Amino acid sequence: MSGLVSKFIFDQSLVIGATRRMTEDDRHLDASGAAPSVTAETLIARIAASRDREAYAQLFCLFAPKVKAFMMRQGMGFQAAEDLAQDTLLTLWRKSELFDPARAAASTWIYTIARNLRIDAARKAARVRDLPEDLWQGNAPKPADDQVIEHQEQASIGRAFDRLPQEQKAILRLSYYEGLSQAEIARAQSIPLGTVKSRMRLAIARLRTHFLET
Amino acid sequence: MQSVHHHPDEDLLWDYHCGAIKPGASLLVRAHIEICPHCQDELKVFEGLGGVFLERMEGVALTETALDLALARIERPAEALPRPVRKQPVFLRGFALPPSVAEAPVTGRYWAAPGVWIAPINTGETDRRVKTYLMFVKAGMIMPEHTHEGQEMTLLLKGGFTDTYGTVETGDFVVRTEADSHSPAIAADEDCLCLVMQTAPIVPKTWLGKILQPFARI
């Protein structure tokens, strides 16, 4: 298997995590200052179209470390987070044909898969699978194999987030990255629960405007 | 669903998104989302932002063999998903149900009163006071007035009712609490089917309700 792996040529700009930290200032750019030549959406389309193992390896190297980091920030152990990252990408491989780039960015879809797996893991005996990944499924024609797909809404919601007031950003970061409930955020920041709720509401309302109307 | 007027509030949607609510409540919210484009959009904002955060995450190094393992795993056939094909009970045929309700483990029903049946759903909830069930009420009936010890969430799957707080129609999601006393009157022209989650037994206010409660078991 390692012989197979070594045949893959990785685009270094896609291997995130080992080498560089994304800061507030360079968040729109990758390491070389340019957008990566192959988007994650295109890689998923290749997997769906032709079970492209090289595309899978690239996606894995791009997203598995992020999923692992995300889960660890939410309190999961090192190994459990890595297992969940493995399962997330495996699910992506198996359900790649459900992905519709017209409806969601790759990162959103992967986030949704990881989130569902986390919830399932938390409810050990869960039989009810929450939030199907195919909530994002549409009837859009499948893109051609080599077509470069980008997701405008995703970029737009990212920019909208960056323009939010600092205190609203702080609450959203705590919610997503630390997995804190609104009550926990209120305690952590020593502000009333009502303030947390209203900031969250304002932030979501503003993001919704950008996200849904672009 | 053209006429959804009542939605889960944003906090509840958020908690649902995070998996922070109990299975019964989660089933109701999910079923509502399945039939409500407005809440689908709301959820897409949460998930879209989650995607942005994931994308910006600084990765944590994986173990050395992680990629080999990943590439080996995709060569294995997917385990057949142990998704039992649930035979839908006869009494639910003919109702247009959101997918998650159609797949919910409904085992049977009992008649709580003439024209009223209840079909409990096993959500895996361990707190015995918390109940999730489908309730069918014939058109034109008026439910005995009651309050709630805890919270009651209702998703209207068919028909509608009117209570002290207004009219609730197909697709609507409403929450009633201890403070709310109501006596839902089912629309005269259509039978009513709703999905209900209650965190504690209802508290009947009338002698008729008190007589019926042991039969209703809610």
What does this structure look like?
The complex is a heterodimer of chains A (214) and B (218). Chain A is mainly α and 214 residues long. Chain A has 2 domains: 2-150, RNA polymerase sigma factor, region 2, helix turn helix motif (Rna Polymerase Sigma Factor, Chain: A, Orthogonal Bundle); 153-212, Arc Repressor Mutant, subunit A, CATH 1.10.10.10. Chain A is built from 9 helices and no strands. In chain A, helix 3 (53-73) runs antiparallel to helix 4 (78-95) and helix 7 (166-177) crosses helix 9. The radius of gyration of chain A is 18 Å and the shape is globular. Chain B is α+β, with helices and mostly antiparallel strands and 218 residues long. Chain B is built from 6 helices and 11 strands. A 6-stranded antiparallel beta sheet of chain B has the order 1-2-3-10-5-8, with helices on both faces. Chain B has a 3-stranded antiparallel beta sheet with strand order 7-6-9, with no helix packed on it. Chain B has a two-stranded antiparallel ribbon with strand order 4-11. In chain B, a hairpin with a 2-residue loop joins strand 1 and strand 2 (116-120). In chain B, helix 1 crosses helix 3 and helix 2 (23-35) crosses helix 3 (37-56). Chain B is elongated, with a radius of gyration of 21 Å. The two termini of chain B are 29 Å apart. The model of chain B has no long low-confidence stretch (mean pLDDT 88).
CATH superfamily of chain B: Jelly Rolls
Overall number of strands of chain B: 11
**Secondary-structure element pattern of chain B, one letter each:** HHHHHEEEEEEEEEEEH
- Which segments of chain A are poorly predicted (pLDDT under 50) over 5 or more consecutive residues? 1-34, 125-147
Q: What order do the helices and strands of chain A follow? A: HHHHHHHHH
The average pLDDT value of chain B, as a whole number, equals 88
Shape of chain A: globular
The end-to-end span of chain A amounts to 44 Å
Query: How many domain modules of chain A?
Result: 2
Which shape of chain B, going by the Cα principal axes?
A: elongated
Give the terminus-to-terminus CA distance of chain B. 29 Å
